[in-house]
Amino acid sequence: MRQIALTEGPHVSTSVTYTAVLDVKRSTAEHLAGLLRGHRIAAGTRKRRRALGCFKQAVLVLRWFLGGTRLAQLARDNGVSVSTAYRCLHEGLTVLAAGAPDPATALDRAKAAGLTHLNLDDTVIRTDRVAAPGPGGADLWWSGKHQHHDGNVQVIATPDGWPIWVTPVRPGREHDTTGARHHGLIDALNRIAAELDMPTLVDLGYENAGDGFRHPHKKPAGGELTEAQQTYNKVIRGIPGVCERANSLLKTTFKALRRVSLDPSRITKIAAAALVLLQLEYDRTT
Question: What's the CA gap between 50 and 40, in Å, rounded?
């Protein structure tokens, strides 16, 4: 239930109460509530010591994810302080992110499914938190390419654009290949390609990453691509375009991923939690 204050004059105000429907499967909310209940039991939390029950807390977390609802609004709607709402949110992020697959598990599932190839692409998650000093005094989270503060998350997806793993966040100023190497993706995906003939399709941002990667040919300086290279580029650019569906699924489904007002380092848990929620909603892993 929500309340809206309506002013009818200088001294008169009334309240209108209405019911809001959350566009999510009830089973997803119940699953999250179960995770929160297990977390409380493991922590030895006594009954009736929390401001919100597990199901109400799950709804708070899902409202933040799906609608990007501000924490102040969520606090008012639930009759709790803003600091309590933040604690409820971070606890929900923690229990959800814990269920995300690690890269080895995600790649094992891809092997078992017999996929012909994988897609790898990055997505930028904007953040409006204050700047932080980075190497050489440069702004750690400022992306010169996008001209705003953001974090970079790389997404591994199936041939039809279903996300199966998201990396921890890296500063938006980092190059794609640098981030992939930091996460161990370059070696892992080259190994998968060599062992199973399962290459990874990427854009030119991953040029020279290894034989396991397929990307368009780059036009040589002062020269032209051959007809065969031009044909190859048309094909290779069309297939990984499906990978954009993975990023779109995450950002379209979860408004919270479009702009994060929390500490940018929290994007790691937010993205992992979003992947788990997406799998719950669609009942699919690969």
Answer: 10
pLDDT tens digits, one per residue of 24-50? 999 999 999 999 999 999 999 888 889
The three-class DSSP label of residue 151 is strand
At a CB cut-off of 8 Å and minimum separation 6, what does 143 contact? 124, 149, 150, 152, 172, 173
Cα separation of 180 and 203, whole Å? 13
Both tokens of residue 164?
């199966």
pLDDT for position 6 = 41
The answer to whether the CB of 109 falls within 8 A of the CB of 286 is: yes
Q: pTM of this prediction?
A: 0.86
Residues 250, 255, 258, 262, CA torsion sign = negative
Indicate if the pLDDT at residue 241 is higher than 80. no
Sequence-ordered strand ranges (E) for the chain: 2-7, 13-18, 118-127, 142-143, 148-157, 163-166, 170-171, 200-201, 213-214, 259-260
pLDDT reading at 4 higher than 90: no
What long-range pairs does 189-195 form, CB within 8 A, spacing at least 24? Answer: 189/118, 189/120, 189/213, 192/107, 192/110, 192/111, 192/118
Provide the token pair at 32: 């999250």
